């Protein structure tokens, strides 16, 4: 059996991560925790394992300010001192706040579309304040994908070609690119619309193709600014779900700007901005899981169940 004394938090992390991946999208923390508990892991260890998952920062924001000068006398503090914010690798982070609170400004700075007046954004350990334009371009090409409000697809190319183009940009052969584009269209549930031009697709479908393009780019970070702003509720929900799916299945970090709370709360964490300042961070993963209640529930149930992911596959992860 596993060693539960010393280095086992790491083992436990691996198991939690493995179960999450092997069971797919909507597996609840509670279900994983219950399996672990029944396999005799102590609750405090399980809690620690969840708390320590996914904690490497991919983006570090430090002492950030962005001022827009409108005239000699008038300036706007769009970001007014965002002193410390980390985005963790693999997480789904929402940025929420009222109109004018600085959400787009922040996202554009994270995406190297705009420059701060002061402060730094460190991406994968590299300070962007010290980057040359060339290095920034390289980052935009290799690290970042964008999903915009207005889809921004190539109008004169089909859905399939829009995705293929992005795959080809990664230096992939035409044949391979076609195959890959087909796979991605399948993942998006858009195979039947492969040959349609953007103008022949609904807003929701166009946005799904835009997300397909982000998948094709294989950059670890997806930045999305109000991707549902021009969609009806049904399509908006589909797009958010799809982004979550990309986050989980492809391991991409997603930063989503939205003022819809029902979408923001799909994230692992919500960052709230007010007047260009950080006004709160809500940890949804923690919030959605009541450990005390969980412990009393499983104690009542007894420990008859066994770990439902088979031991041999768990062992594979550990070896
Ligand atoms: N290019 C610009 N020039 C001048 N002021 C700007 C510019 N871009 C943004 N601002 C100002 O900075 C502040 C923050 O704008 P930002 O677009 O980041 O807000 P937001 O939270 O994205 O709002 P919304 O929800 O309406 O999209 C606002 O007061 C805005 O007027
Ligand atoms: Mg905005």
- The poorly predicted ranges are 303-307
Radius of gyration over alpha carbons? 22 Å
Task: Enumerate how many helices there are, as a single number.
Answer: 13
CATH architecture of the largest domain: 3-Layer(aba) Sandwich
The computed structural class is alpha/beta
Q: Please tally the β strands and state the result.
A: 10
Question: Average pLDDT across residues?
Answer: 85
SSE run:
HHHEEEHEEHEHHHEHEHEEHHH
CATH topology of the largest domain: Rossmann fold
Largest sheet: 6 strands, mixed
Strand order in the sheet with the most strands: 6-7-8-3-9-10
Overall, the morphology is: globular
What would your notes on this structure say?
- This protein has 319 residues and is an alpha/beta fold.
- It folds into 2 domains: 8-54 and 289-318, no CATH class; 90-116 and 128-285, P-loop containing nucleotide triphosphate hydrolases (Rossmann fold, 3-Layer(aba) Sandwich), CATH 3.40.50.300.
- It is built from 13 helices and 10 strands.
- It has helices spanning 8-23, 29-38, 43-52, 103-110, 133-142, 159-169, 174-188, 203-217, 233-250, 261-264, 284-287, 291-301, 311-318; strands spanning 57-69, 75-88, 92-97, 118-123, 126-127, 144-147, 221-225, 253-257, 269-274, 277-283.
- The strands form 2 sheets. Strands 6-7-8-3-9-10 form a 6-stranded mixed sheet, with helices on both faces.
- A hairpin with a 2-residue loop joins strand 4 and strand 5 (126-127).
- Helix 1 packs across helix 3 (43-52), helix 6 (159-169) packs parallel to helix 8 (203-217) and helix 7 packs across helix 8 (203-217).
- It is globular.
- Mean pLDDT is 85; it is low at 303-307.
- The site of adenosine-5'-triphosphate has 13 residues, from strand 2 and helix 4.
- Residues 68, 70, 76, 78, 97, 99-105, 259 line the site of adenosine-5'-triphosphate.
């Amino acid at each position: 059996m596993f060693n539960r004394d010393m280095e086992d938090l790491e083992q436990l992390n691996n198991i939690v991560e493995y179960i999450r991946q092997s069971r797919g999208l909507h597996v609840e923390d509670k279900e994983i925790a219950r399996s672990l508990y029944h396999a005799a892991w102590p609750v405090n260890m399980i809690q620690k394992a969840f708390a320590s998952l996914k904690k490497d920062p991919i983006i570090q924001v430090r002492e950030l300010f962005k001022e827009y000068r409108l005239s000699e006398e008038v300036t706007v503090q769009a970001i007014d001192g965002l002193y410390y914010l980390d985005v963790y690798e693999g997480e789904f982070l929402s940025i929420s706040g009222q109109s004018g609170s600085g959400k787009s400004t922040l996202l554009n700075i994270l995406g190297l579309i705009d420059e701060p007046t002061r402060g730094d954004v460190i991406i994968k350990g590299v300070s962007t304040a010290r980057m040359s334009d060339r290095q920034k371009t390289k980052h935009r090409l290799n690290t970042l994908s964008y999903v915009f409000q207005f889809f921004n697809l190539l109008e004169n190319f089909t859905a399939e070609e829009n995705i293929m183009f992005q795959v080809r940009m990664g230096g992939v052969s035409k044949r391979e690119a076609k195959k890959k584009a087909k796979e991605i269209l399948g993942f998006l549930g858009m195979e039947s619309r492969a040959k349609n031009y953007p103008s022949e697709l609904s807003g929701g479908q166009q946005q799904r193709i835009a997300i397909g393009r982000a998948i094709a780019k294989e950059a670890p970070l997806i930045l999305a600014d109000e991707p549902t702003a021009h969609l009806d509720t049904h399509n908006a929900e589909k797009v958010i779900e799809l982004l979550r799916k990309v986050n989980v299945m492809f391991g991409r970090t997603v930063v989503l700007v939205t003022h819809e709370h029902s979408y923001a709360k799909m994230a692992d964490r919500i960052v709230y901005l007010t007047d260009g300042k950080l006004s709160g961070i809500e940890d949804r993963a923690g919030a959605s899981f009541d450990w005390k209640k969980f412990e009393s529930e499983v104690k009542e149930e007894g420990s008859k169940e066994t770990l439902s992911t088979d031991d041999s596959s768990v062992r594979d992860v550990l070896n």
